[in-house]
Design brief:
By secondary structure, this protein is an alpha/beta fold. It starts with a strand and ends in a 7-residue tail after the last helix.
């Protein structure tokens, strides 16, 4: 399939590498323009091309949004209608400024993006693994102690597609439930950061507490 990437930083470039290695095509974009992605596209090879965020949104069958959370309203809306959108975001007040509805825990990061993209099918993924480990920790299906990654989303079909991609990339999937449960793998929760198997991640999700409960 064609995977669009809105954002080609640490996570975006790594997901692009995984996608190309798995046989997919990628359209990479960033806020500085396609001409700044020449080196990355050359590394990725003939399955990759650079474009604008609109190009990635329009041309991608699945689109990964991996930009600072404070810029989520810049994501194109119309070309993403009906599409699966993978959201990698975390909330960092020092970078993003204060966002009241996240501070009072009335919503989650991926629900913010879903509200901005009402016609899209948003799935939270890739937010709790350090970027370099995306291309070093993957293992074939069935491998003992294979690393797990968490997803959350409101659309079952979208989650099935993301689960398939994660398997191709070398990871087991742990479904945290709807987007509203995505907080269970946000910063400062047990499963955020360290290498975990699927079984360990399930325990981490169960042990997670909202900030107000600590």
């Amino acid at each position: 399939m064609v995977i669009g990437l809105i954002g080609a930083g640490n996570i975006g470039s790594q997901v692009a590498r995984l996608a190309v290695a798995a046989g997919h095509e990628v359209i990479v974009s960033n806020s500085r323009g396609p001409e700044t992605l020449t080196e990355l596209v050359a590394e990725l090879g003939e399955r990759a091309r650079a474009g604008t965020a609109h190009d990635a949104a329009e041309g991608g069958e699945v689109v990964v949004v991996t930009i600072p959370l404070k810029h989520y309203r810049s994501v194109p809306v119309d070309p993403l209608a009906g599409k699966i959108v993978i959201d990698t975001n975390n909330y960092s007040p020092g970078r993003d400024g204060r966002i009241a509805e996240l501070d009072d825990e009335s919503t989650t990061t991926s629900e913010l993006l879903q509200a901005h993209l009402p016609g899209s099918r948003v799935v939270k993924a890739f937010n709790h693994i350090y970027a370099p480990e995306l291309t070093t920790d993957g293992r074939p299906a069935g491998t003992d102690n294979r690393r797990g990654l968490v997803i959350a989303g409101d659309d079952a079909g979208a989650k099935e597609t993301v689960t398939m991609l994660l398997d191709q990339f070398g990871f087991d999937t742990v479904d945290a439930g709807p987007l509203s449960e995505g907080w269970r793998i946000q910063r400062d929760t047990p499963g955020y950061g360290p290498r975990r198997t699927a079984a360990e991640l399930r325990a981490d999700l169960a042990a997670a507490k909202r900030y107000a409960e600590r």
